[in-house]
């Protein structure tokens, strides 16, 4: 099931890129990126606690409007409570967490996919001894002209 959801998220990304390619006369700037080359140690996002490692895949890809990020929340780390300004998908790859979504809290773990909608509030907290590792996917906001 976990692989099926990851496959679905990656398929969504591929379809997005495919549609973009058709519209821009067969782009030729495809590439492979390894997480070891892009790892960034950061505090918990949205004024969260603790330390995380972010892997911002394809962040520098020109004309690519999809954010695909892996984030490891190390023991004690959180993504602070915030209200979304876009739809987002979180997919839990490993570890355990406590998700607060619209003021309701529940445990999340490997194989859980979380859809947070524009206007929803949410926060995520790592629990246990193992890093909470998630993938995050959303459309990048359009740049102002």
Key words describing this protein structure:
RmlC_Cupin_sf; metal-binding; four-stranded antiparallel β-sheet; 145 residues; metal ion binding; globular; 1 helix; Jelly Rolls; 10 strands; alpha+beta; Cupin domain-containing protein
**Integer tally of domains:** 1
Please write the string of helix (H) and strand (E) elements.
HEEEEEEEEEE
The CATH C-level name is Mainly Beta
For CATH, the homologous superfamily is named as: Jelly Rolls
CATH architecture descriptor text: Sandwich
Gist of the model:
The chain is α+β, with helices and mostly antiparallel strands and 145 residues long.
What does this structure look like?
- The protein has 145 residues and is of the alpha+beta class.
- The protein has a single domain (2-26, 37-139), classed as Jelly Rolls.
- It is 15% helix and 43% strand.
- The protein is built from one helix and ten strands, in the order αββββββββββ.
- The strands form two sheets. It has a six-stranded antiparallel sheet with strand order 1-2-3-10-5-8, covered by helices on one side.
- The radius of gyration is 16 Å and the shape is globular.
- The N and C termini lie far apart (42 Å).
- The model is unreliable at 17-24 (pLDDT under 50).
């Amino acid at each position: 099931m976990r692989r099926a959801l990851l496959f679905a998220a990656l398929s969504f990304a591929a379809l997005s890129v495919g549609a973009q390619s058709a519209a821009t006369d067969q782009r030729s700037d495809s590439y492979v990126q390894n997480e070891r080359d892009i790892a960034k140690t950061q505090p918990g996002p949205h004024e969260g606690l603790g330390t995380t490692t972010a892997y911002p895949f394809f962040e520098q890809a020109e004309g690519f409007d999809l954010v695909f990020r892996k984030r490891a929340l190390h023991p004690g780390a959180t993504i602070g409570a915030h209200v979304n300004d876009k739809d987002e998908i979180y997919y839990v790859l490993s570890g355990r967490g406590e998700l607060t979504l619209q003021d309701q809290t529940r445990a999340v773990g490997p194989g859980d996919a979380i859809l947070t909608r524009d206007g929803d509030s949410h926060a995520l907290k790592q629990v246990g001894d193992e890093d909470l590792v998630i993938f995050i996917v959303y459309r990048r906001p359009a740049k102002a002209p």
